[in-house]
Amino acid sequence: MAEGYDVVVIGSGPGGYAAAIRCTQRGASVAIAEKELIGGTCLNWGCIPSKALLSSAHTLLLAKRAAMMGVDITSATANWPKIQGRKDAIVSSFRKGLTGLVENSKVKIVWGRAIVTAPRQVKVEADAATMGIEADKIILATGSKPIEIPSIAFDGETVISSKEALELQQIPKSMIIIGGGVIGCELACVYAAVGTKVTIVEALSRLIPMEDEWVGRLIEREFKKLGIEAVTNQKVTCAEKTKGSVKVTLEGGRTIEAEKVLVSVGRKAVCD
Ligand SMILES: Cc1cc2nc3c(=O)[nH]c(=O)nc-3n(C[C@H](O)[C@H](O)[C@H](O)COP(=O)(O)OP(=O)(O)OC[C@H]3O[C@@H](n4cnc5c(N)ncnc54)[C@H](O)[C@@H]3O)c2cc1C
Predict the structure, then answer these.
(1) Is the CB of 54 under 6 A from ligand 1?
(2) Hey, whose CA ends up nearest to atom 52 of ligand 1?
(3) β-strands 121-125, 130-140 pairing
């Protein structure tokens, strides 16, 4: 027997949970299906963890430059396990708060992967059981996932997406970031601040190519100060994994080797 609701929302990211809460405020009975963690990409693998890491990186850089401001700090170094621990604590406390908010709004959370099987029919598959939901309206809020470059497939270890880059247990000695958009540039800042040798490769003529030209130029100038090498107008053609590192070849023939390759060339809709 399927449970019946006015609305079923698939996905509990900022799109999904806001829609679900708004529907209950308007008097609808609502279920939200989530296959991973409440809060979606933004809370668990996106905005919140990236800003937590950036804020630690910023603090470290400020401390290193403190002498310039007349403040003597004898040594400032990154304590990476603590930085990661702080980030994890922020994410889990926000997740707890959000779960309470959703539950208090009388939204029923159904755990599992939702599949729309017919008009008004949703099947939610979980390890333990499969549940049927019938709803007048179905809201798809399934978000996005990182785009993979077919010749440089993700392996979660040496060729990684932003998701793994936010959770690295150790600071890598070197990292090649393919894609100079916002996600690539943010993570370049985090890792360069804690001592990783970062090279960022962008196919277009400047970093953050979606913004005005001066923004990219300004970021390139600041990146130089952080020791980040920005290679623009270059595509990566292939990557070859060796023991403990990856060697990437650029269109122009140059090769660069690093411990990690972060592919951040954009995201695509999850609509399968
Ligand atoms: C590293 C990084 C940093 C970012 N920083 C910022 C920032 O600073 N500011 C900003 O505005 N944006 C930022 N973003 C973008 C932001 O995360 C997204 O715009 C936002 O998460 C989109 O919300 P959403 O609800 O559409 O999807 P998502 O947050 O992706 O949520 C979708 C949810 O749907 C679930 N789902 C998918 N399919 C199913 C299914 N079949 N059944 C059940 N559940 C399913 C997923 O598990 C997920 O929880 C960042 C993204 C990344 C990756």
Answers:
(1) no
(2) 46
(3) antiparallel
